[in-house]
Amino acid sequence: MRALGNGAYLYTRPSPVQPPFPDLCAKAHLRGFCGLVPKRSASGGVERPGQKLTKSGHDRIKRALYLAADTARRVDPQLAEVDWRLMVHKGHHHRQALCAVANRLVNRILSVLRSGRSYGLRGLEGEPITVAQGRQIIAARFSVPAAIRGSRRRQRVAACG
């Protein structure tokens, strides 16, 4: 992105950007740089999926991606489908599903930076859509039922006394 302006107004224009260092050429390296990679825990040849995220990566980058993923799942039907599938069919917690959406978002950010094109919302079949159409699709097909959301929340125990 290049910052352009005349003092009072500042805006950015997308431009082909080279990654800051050569290691960011692969999507997996960029996700690692952002701190969105789960820990690997393997013992005796058995891997345990569903591990916590590593503590690597800058906290502000992780927070920004988490908040961007939360917004994107409400507007982008493809990302909302990922969130919905993980929560409804795989039993993931809301935060686990959001981290998966953030991973997908990092992949999209890298492809936008590589291609130099602007990001555009797409429907489930890949056709361009507006934000209003995206919200309609999500409301009709990918809303997580309240019962499932409630069952994924941590239950607090009342203090004895």
Question: What features would you describe in this structure?
Answer:
There is one protein chain. The chain is mainly alpha-helical and 161 residues long. 46% of the residues lie in helices and 7% in strands. The chain has helices at residues 27-34, 59-72, 77-88, 94-115, 131-141, 146-152, and strands spanning 2-5, 10-13, 42-43, 46-47. It has a two-stranded antiparallel sheet. A two-stranded antiparallel sheet has the order 3-4. Strand 1 (2-5) and strand 2 form a beta hairpin. The termini are far apart. The model is unreliable at 1-12 (pLDDT under 50).
Task: Sum up the structure in keywords.
single chain, 161 residues, mainly alpha, two-stranded antiparallel sheet, two-stranded antiparallel ribbon, 6 helices, flat
Number of extended strands = 4
Distinct helical segment count: 6
The low-pLDDT segments are 1-12
Measure the end-to-end span: 59 Å
What gyration radius follows from the Cα positions, in whole Å?
19 Å
Largest sheet report: 2 strands, antiparallel
Summed over residues and divided by their number, the pLDDT gives a mean of 77
Can you lay out the helices and strands and say which pair or pack?
Layout: E1 2-5, E2 10-13, H1 27-34, E3 42-43, E4 46-47, H2 59-72, H3 77-88, H4 94-115, H5 131-141, H6 146-152
Antiparallel strand pairs: 1-2, 3-4
Helix pairs in contact: 1-4, 2-4, 3-4
